[in-house]
Amino acid sequence: MIYTITFNPALDYVIQVDHFKAGQINRNKTENVYYGGKGINVSCILNELSVPSTALGFICGFTGKALKDGLHGLGIHTNFIEVEKGMTRINIKMKSDEETEINGKGPVIEKKDFDALLKIVKTFKKGDMVILSGNIPSSLQSDSYQRVIKVLNEGVDFVVDAEKDLLMKTLPYHPFLIKPNNLELEEIFGIKLKNKEDIVACGKKLQSLGARNVLISMAKDGAILIDENGTIYQQGVCRGTVVNSVGAGDSMVAGFIAGVLKERDYSKALKLATACGGATAFHSGLATYPQIMEAMKTLE
Ligand SMILES: Nc1ncnc2c1ncn2[C@@H]1O[C@H](COP(=O)(O)OP(=O)(O)OP(=O)(O)O)[C@@H](O)[C@H]1O
Ligand SMILES: O=P(O)(O)OC[C@@]1(O)O[C@H](CO)[C@@H](O)[C@@H]1O
């Protein structure tokens, strides 16, 4: 079984506003609500690819209920911890002359809630895979990712897609896959990446710190994978018009894992990953299976 863990799930309120002006009343041209949070997005794309997963994490309040019910409506299995204080966040994604995101804080996670998550994680068996993605609510300690990883049973692989410190602290535990983007790499190493060689060097450094497979996404410039044997794969993008930048990276993670599970061919998995990332970028909301298959036909 694949488990996705989203410590801070969300409802994504995606709006379009013509020429947004701060300090004034603005009116939406379009508005949509999507189930969000990075791990949730991974579960949604896996579901499109007919790969079952269970979405875990902490939810709270009416927004948490809407998220859970909505995922069940899509046929996605969940095992959320329902916490008492606060509410599942609503993240605002505004498209206007510029794109603006305002991500919420999320609910209060108490020790008993975190312990309840650890109890579930301890039941995962050899052959299972866990995908840990996204930010953590401010009520959680910064070592929360490691605390989950440390209780995993032998033979349970894990994937990490998170920002700087959260990601770096997991490397000594040998994640099966990490997926930083090129900007995150620049932030991690405090350098400006100038070419492919620089990017590969950073990826290899992450491997020397413990990561097994490193998938570096670069938006319109595609992606580079350095696998655990040191083989380097470079992949361009699908052709299309970008309408959405939310969730392309999560879609890529889902596509890669689905590809690896179907056949252990990293080159094919990278192609499926790219089609998933592209299909999400070319449509509003996350990609559907037919959109992913369409994108696949236009791979560079
Ligand atoms: N503008 C684009 N044109 C074509 N493909 C794109 C574009 N943006 C993203 N993609 C596809 O999606 C993949 C992942 O995108 P990206 O590098 O933006 O991930 P990310 O930074 O993690 O995204 P996010 O945080 O928005 O989910 C890319 O490698 C590419 O295949
Ligand atoms: O605040 P985090 O956890 O870093 O990011 C959360 C988020 O921006 O990431 C997803 C896209 O990758 C969205 O669905 C969601 O709103």
UniProtKB/TrEMBL annotation:
Keywords: ATP-binding, Kinase, Lactose metabolism, Nucleotide-binding, Transferase
Taxonomy of the source species: Bacteria, Bacillati, Bacillota, Erysipelotrichia, Erysipelotrichales
Entry EC number(s): 2.7.1.144
Gene3D superfamilies assigned to the protein according to its UniProt record, in alphabetical order: 3.40.1190.20
GO MF annotations in UniProt: 1-phosphofructokinase activity
UniProt pathway: Carbohydrate metabolism; D-tagatose 6-phosphate degradation; D-glyceraldehyde 3-phosphate and glycerone phosphate from D-tagatose 6-phosphate: step 1/2
Pfam family of the protein (one): PfkB
Keyword Nucleotide-binding listed: yes
Reaction catalysis annotation: beta-D-fructose 1-phosphate + ATP = beta-D-fructose 1,6-bisphosphate + ADP + H(+); D-tagatofuranose 6-phosphate + ATP = D-tagatofuranose 1,6-bisphosphate + ADP + H(+)
Biological function: Catalyzes the ATP-dependent phosphorylation of fructose-l-phosphate to fructose-l,6-bisphosphate.
Name this polypeptide is given: Tagatose-6-phosphate kinase
Protein family per UniProt: Belongs to the carbohydrate kinase PfkB family. LacC subfamily.
The Carbohydrate kinase PfkB domain, residue ranges: 8-288
